[in-house]
TrEMBL record:
This is Chloride channel protein. The lineage of its organism: Bacteria, Pseudomonadati, Pseudomonadota, Betaproteobacteria, Rhodocyclales. Keywords: Chloride, Chloride channel, Ion channel, Ion transport, Membrane, Transmembrane, Transmembrane helix, Transport. It comes from Aromatoleum evansii. It is found in: Membrane. Its main location: membrane. The chain crosses the membrane at residues 21-40, 52-75, 198-219, 231-254, 275-300, 362-386. InterPro entries: Cl-channel_core (IPR014743), ClC (IPR001807), ClC-type_chloride_channel (IPR050368).
């Protein structure tokens, strides 16, 4: 009995135990701080780009190609793990048992570079988001606790999962969405075991965001609602359209990640920086044609449309998909999660225009959740995040229904989840880099 009591009581009085808890809390707060600095920096970068374009829209023809080329060159030359979203790299790191491979995908140096390069892309007008980078940054900060130097705080995998949830929670003030993202996206291939670690990370990262930015809602408070039973038709239509479109777009992104066909593909492989500049030029031209509506994340345009102050054009969702794809194939750092919400809002707005009525904002919210669910195949995460972003609990059941319907339609088009499919080549590249370095070291030792 004495031995048992000592065994159960010792963690409570162990200085090492509380030191590890304090380190975990400190890392969560740091991850939240990174996400907040990122959010503030992104707002300033987007605002500065808007001011530049307002002074002369034609400046985008020089700014976008130069920015795309510059971000692509720096990322390719010095920080290859920062290319693209960041979520595939984080998933790849969680799947690898090799500490060296994980270090190639997640580190504090990579986190800092990811933040700066993504801000550079937003300043250039690229249609990228900060959610994927926030995931990689949060996971990098939490993963820095892994190893023996701090004692066993948690397994590397659990720390990565916790950091990814903390990044989402702090970036968009969506704590439930952060937890669901950690469970549904990060734990597809293994059971969710990071319960206390993830909760601690999400709570304290959220508290950091709450303390600095306040209790805000990403898209404000959206008073959209549907009448029943007539509201079942918008749910079905948005769910089906968002699922098919999101699944098709997911397949396009996965196929593009493997390489483009024909001469364009050869040019992209042989001259990636020039190709990135070309993607920037195309982005600028589309921005000029659409009056600047397709630049950056699409947050301002979506929020204005939800509030009824500035409607979206019927072609907005298609133009937005095109500029997202251009940023993706250029391989500059930046996510597709937030821009995908703008595509969904545009899709809902177009469907509302085809069926005029008073349900426009409701269809836009349904379009957001449907397209996001269809693109990522994460139905629970999608409706939870959109619900938290719009602070509209009246739409909970319609959002759930549209998300599940979109998931079903998307599975028939693209059976494999986007980030899961992109994680495989990211893991293979990191493993190949580690293998080349090991072979070089062996060769040097032999000589």
């Amino acid at each position: 009995m004495a031995r048992s009591s000592r065994r159960y009581a010792s963690p409570l009085i162990s200085l090492g135990h509380w030191r590890r808890r304090a380190l975990l809390v400190g890392a969560a707060l740091l991850a939240g701080l990174f996400a907040i600095v990122f959010a503030i920096g992104a707002e300033h970068a987007i605002e500065l780009h808007a001011r530049i374009i307002a002074s002369s829209p034609w400046l985008s023809l020089a700014l976008a190609p130069a920015g795309f080329a510059g971000m692509a060159w720096v990322a390719r030359r010095f920080f290859p793990a920062t290319q693209g979203s960041g979520i595939p790299q984080t998933i790849a790191a969680s799947l690898s048992p090799d500490a060296e491979v994980r270090g190639r995908l997640l580190s504090l140096k990579i986190a800092g570079a990811k933040l700066i390069l993504t801000l550079g892309g937003l300043l250039s007008g690229a249609s990228i988001g900060r959610e994927g980078p926030s995931v990689q940054i949060g996971a990098s900060v939490m993963h820095s606790l892994a190893g023996r130097r701090f004692g066993r705080i948690a397994s590397s995998r659990n720390l990565i999962v916790a950091g990814s949830g903390a990044g989402i929670a702090a970036a968009f003030n969506t704590p439930l969405g952060g937890i669901m993202f950690a469970i549904e996206e990060m734990c597809r291939h293994h059971a969710f075991r990071a319960n206390s670690t993830t909760l601690t990370a999400v709570i304290f990262a959220g508290l950091m965001s709450l303390g600095i930015l306040g209790n805000y809602t990403y898209f404000g408070r959206t008073p959209a609602a549907l009448s029943w039973p007539a509201g079942i038709w918008p749910v079905l239509i948005c769910g089906a359209a968002g699922g098919i479109l999101g699944g098709t777009f997911s397949r396009l992104l996965v196929a593009s990640a493997r390489g483009l066909p024909g001469r364009v593909g050869n040019f992209a492989a042989e001259r990636p920086i020039a190709f990135a500049a070309g993607c920037g030029l195309a982005t600028a031209l589309i921005g000029l044609v659409t009056g600047g509506a397709t630049y950056a994340t699409g947050y301002a345009e979506s929020k204005a449309a939800l509030e009824g102050t500035a409607p979206l054009s019927v072609y907005f969702f298609a133009a937005k998909m095109l500029v997202i794809w251009l940023a993706f194939v250029s391989r500059i750092p930046g996510g597709v999660f937030a821009p995908a919400l703008a595509v969904g809002a545009g899709l809902g707005s177009t469907l509302a225009a085809l069926n005029p009525g008073e349900e426009g904002p409701a269809l836009m919210v349904l379009g957001m959740v449907a397209f996001l669910s269809g693109m990522t195949l994460t139905p629970i995460t999608s409706f939870v995040i959109v619900m938290e972003m719009t602070a509209n609990h009246e739409m909970l059941i319609p959002l759930m229904a549209a998300s599940v319907i979109a998931y079903g339609f998307s599975r028939s088009v693209s059976p494999r989840a986007l980030y899961d499919a992109l994680a495989v080549p990211a893991l293979e590249r990191a493993q190949a880099e580690v293998g080349r370095d090991a072979a070089a070291r062996e060769k040097a030792d032999a000589s």
